[in-house]
């Protein structure tokens, strides 16, 4: 039972981080191709992660810890850029 909860919690964490990154990308008007490149994903990996967001299976590449670091780094960078744009507007 605990293992199932952990898998579900990790899936939710990954989906939430992906949605945060997507939302910031939308706010910054960054297209999907640029978002893919920032995360260092090839087309297949990008597609697998997009499928995951739509309740698909958790992709194995890149591994979840790597993907979470990439999403965190990219989201942090976009948030700083958004704050800077708001401050100068």
Overall geometry comes to: globular
The rounded Rg comes to: 14 Å
Low-confidence stretches: none
Helical content class? over 70%
List the helices and strands in order: HHHH
Assembly of the depicted chains: single chain
**What is the mean pLDDT?**
88
The profile of the biggest β sheet is: none
- Overall structural class, as computed from helix and strand content, comes to mainly alpha
Count structural domains. 1
Q: Quote the distance from N terminus to C terminus.
A: 51 Å
Number of strands: 0
**Percent in strands:** under 5%
Query: What is the number of helices?
Result: 4
Describe this entry's structure for a reader.
This protein has about 90 residues and is mostly helical. About 80% of the residues lie in helices and about 0% in strands. The protein has helices at about 1-25, 30-40, 45-55, 65-89. α1 (about 1-25) packs parallel to α4. The radius of gyration is 14 Å and the shape is globular.
């Amino acid at each position: 039972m605990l293992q199932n909860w952990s898998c579900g919690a990790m899936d939710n964490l990954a989906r939430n981080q992906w949605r945060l990154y997507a939302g910031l990308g939308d706010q910054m008007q960054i297209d999907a191709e640029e978002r893919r490149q920032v995360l260092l994903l090839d087309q297949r990996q990008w597609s697998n992660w997009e499928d995951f967001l739509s309740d698909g299976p958790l992709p194995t590449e890149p591994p979840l810890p790597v993907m979470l670091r990439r999403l965190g780094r990219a989201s942090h960078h976009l948030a700083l850029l958004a704050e800077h744009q708001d401050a100068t507007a």
